[in-house]
Amino acid sequence: GKKRNTTRYPLLTADPLAANIQPGGTPCERILSPPMPDARVAVVTGANTGIGLETAKALCAEGFEVVLACRSEDKAAQAMDVIKQANPAAKVTFIPLDTASLASAKAFATAFVGRHCRIDALVLNAGTGYVKKEQRTTADGNEAILQINFLSHFLLTQCLLPLLQKTADARVVCLTSVAHREALTADWEELNSKTVEASYASSKLAMALFAFELVNRTGLLAAAVNPGAVASDIWRYMDGRRGVYAAVHGWVQRSLMLTPEQGSATSVYAATAPLPKGECVYASPYAEWPLFPHASDYVCPFNGPTLRRADEKAYDRAAQQRLWEWSIGKCEQWLP
Question: Name one GO molecular function term (predicted).
Answer without folding.
Answer: oxidoreductase activity
